[in-house]
Amino acid sequence: MRLAAAAAILCGVAVAVQATFTGVMQRHVGTVESTFITYFSGGVVIGLVILLLRGGNLGAAPGMPWYVYTAGLFGLIIIGTLSLSVGELGLVPALVLITVSQFVVGALINHFGLLGATVDPIDLGKVAGLALLGIGTYLVLR
C-alpha cells in the first residue's frame, strides 16, 4: 500500500513536470511535433529497457483483449491534448480540467465495470466528492 501510494504521488509529480515540458515544446514547435518528441524519447528509453529484459513478458501479449492495444492511441491523445491545453491555458487550469474529467469518467467506468474494470458503485460519498471537485474546478478557473 505504501509503495502504491508513493508511486501515485510520483506519477502526479511526473505528470506536472511532463505537462510543463510538453507545454513549452508546444509553444515552440507545435502540438503534433511535441507529441512526436515525447513519444520518440519515451519509446527509445522503454525499447532499451525491453532489450535489457530480453523481451520481458511480451510473449503473453497475444492473450490480451483486442481493445487494450488502443492504449498507445489514447497515450497519443493524452500527450497531444496535454501539450495543447497546458500551452494555451497554463499548467494549473489544464491539470484541473484533466483531473476532474479523469475522476468523472473513472467513476463511471468503475460504477458499470466497463472495459474490464472492477465494479465499484457510485455512492453518496462519491457524488459529494465529485460535486466538491466541481466547485473546486470553478474556483480555480474563475
Structural topology:
Blueprint (H helix, E strand, L loop, with lengths): L1 H28 L1 H22 L18 H19 L1 H22 L11 H18 L1
Helix pairs in contact: 1-2, 1-3, 2-3, 3-4, 4-5
Q: How would you portray this structure in words?
A:
α3 packs antiparallel against α4. The protein is mostly helical and 142 residues long. The protein folds into 2 domains: 89 residues, no CATH class; 52 residues, no CATH class. It starts with a helix and ends with a helix. The radius of gyration is 18 Å and the shape is globular. The protein contains 5 helices and no strands.
pLDDT average, as an integer?
92
Counting H and I runs of at least 4 residues, what is the number of helices? 5
Sheet of most strands = none
Q: Any idea how many domains? A: 2
Percentage of residues assigned to helices: over 70%
Helix vs. strand class = mainly alpha
Terminal CA distance: 36 Å
Uncertain runs? none
**Morphology call:** globular
Gyration radius, to the nearest Å?
18 Å
Helix-strand pattern: HHHHH
Quaternary structure: single chain
Portion of residues in beta strands equals: under 5%
Number of E strands: 0
Quick gist of this model?
The protein is mostly helical and 142 residues long.
Features:
2 domains, globular, 142 residues, 5 helices, mainly alpha
